[in-house]
Amino acid sequence: METHTSSFSSLRAYLRALSHTPTRFTRRAISVSTPYEEMSRVRSRSGSDMRKTLRWYDLLGFGIGGMVGAGVFVTTGRATRLLAGPAVVLSYAIAGLCSLLSAFCYTEFAVDMPVAGGAFSYLRVTFGEFAAFFTGANLIMDYVMSNAAVARGFTAYFGTAIGVSSSNWRITVPHLPNGFNQIDIVAVAVILLVTFVICYSTRESSTVNMILTALHLLFIVFIIVIGFTRGSWKNFTEPSNSENAYGFFPYGASGVFNGAAMVYISYIGYDAVSTLAEEVRNPVKDIPIGVSGSVIIVTVLYCLMAASMSKLLPYDMIDTEAPFSAAFSGKSEGSRWVSQVIGVGASFGILTSLLVAMMGQARYMCVIGRSSVLPHWFARVHPNTNTPVNASTFLGLFTAALALFTDLDVLLNLVSIGTLFVFYMVANAVIYRRYVAIGTTKPWPTLSFLCSFSFTSIMFTLIWKFLPNGRAKAGLLSACAVIAFAILQLFHSMVPQARKPEFWGVPFMPWIPSVSIFLNVFLLGSLDGPSYVRFGFFSAVAVIVYVFYSVHASYDAEEDDFIIGQKNCEIHMESEESEEDQSFKV
């Protein structure tokens, strides 16, 4: 039997493999997997299975805990003061609707294919290995950077809660450059503690998350009640400075949508819940309730929080950096204790969002290791804890190293361009998978629709962002909207669906995923330049890793699977021949 030599067995073998890179890239980049392979052969590479211990209420807890973190305490003030005014309540409602549409797309995949890979696995069965690796690698880097920033933010919020400046807890190293000279031991300790919890057990991680989330929700309800009881309804329409715009919409309708783009980052976190699908007892029932239900609950909470803050202060008096704490600390001396209570609540929120995000990033890394585009060491599931200990430990230490000395701005790193890009890709993937069946239907009509609709969405976004207000801008935006609607209606009427979901599917296909595509493109257009620079850098790193390592490791795994299949076939044939010989002798 012929054996395959690994591309990494020696330097000569690796150089030989590099010489075949174009051929292997062409073969592996667009190779797609199947749900059956993802749930059987690919999952078996982890050794032990992840234990199915989660129910719908666990997913609700993870979803709420993952979303209600530091984001809402930062973005609400900026969106209210600078963009939407009291209408920030509607901004949160619009952003919540966008999140719900994306959640529907995730849910269809997670119910049909309950594996730990989340978006990586969904893209691998639709657009192929390279697209999955490209988006997955960017998402993991965004997770790591955001988690490091959030952990450092915990030091600041907890210091505020107990009345101690965070600078007293950080060690300044004068010989290091600015931005890298503040050593944060507390942030490292928090990350290592969370890493231990998620390595120990998913069931216990859920219990810890439930407790922290319940405490955090109590503080949020406290904020809402205090705001509504101490505030005044006139603050919804009257600014403190008579020179500023009056009314519920001081910045107009455009301000509401710009505010929605800013506060959308407060909803990022539910995607990590989809990575827990492999550990859910009843995916068909539990996943739709857990994912969609958590988005709906968080939307209601965010709208009430924004309303309570707008009732407490006029929009032009709201602090842009710490709106809730500043609102109470400035009311009176007797209200300063409320500010400290809010600091405690924010600390709990940071811990829950950190816990869920670190669980999600570990499972992404585990399944990427299963697919052989990263070393199999990351794919191992510990037989005693039934958790991806290797991936969790590696990413935990990497995150802790960043949080130790890198001064990352919390808001900047919560603006996750990688996550929004993955939302966009998953919405495209759910349409592609519904309308294209490999071997039976042609993919070009669907691909043409997706490309043309995305292009129209990009044009709408660029016009919205760069053209000055006026009739020309309104006319061009209207033209883009009409063209997008026409493209969508034409595709809907002419291209039939190739498959129907067996258990749960996105309703009103292809309208809901298409709206999700448009909204994610629009929100991507609202991000700043540095976000795209970071995305470009991480993308370049991902491509380099794929070309120089992943494509060859994946090729080796394909060849090994082929040889194993041949051996199994020969063993089966020899067994049948032996049985025939025995029966002949008898």
UniProtKB/TrEMBL annotation:
UniProt keyword list: Membrane, Transmembrane, Transmembrane helix
Start and end residues of each Cationic amino acid transporter C-terminal domain: 504-554
Cellular location(s): Membrane
Coarse class of the protein's main subcellular location: membrane
Nuclease listed as a keyword: no
Keyword Transmembrane helix: yes
Family: Belongs to the amino acid-polyamine-organocation (APC) superfamily. Cationic amino acid transporter (CAT) (TC 2.A.3.3) family.
Protein name: Cationic amino acid transporter C-terminal domain-containing protein
Annotated organism of origin: Lupinus luteus
Taxonomic path: Eukaryota, Viridiplantae, Streptophyta, Embryophyta, Tracheophyta
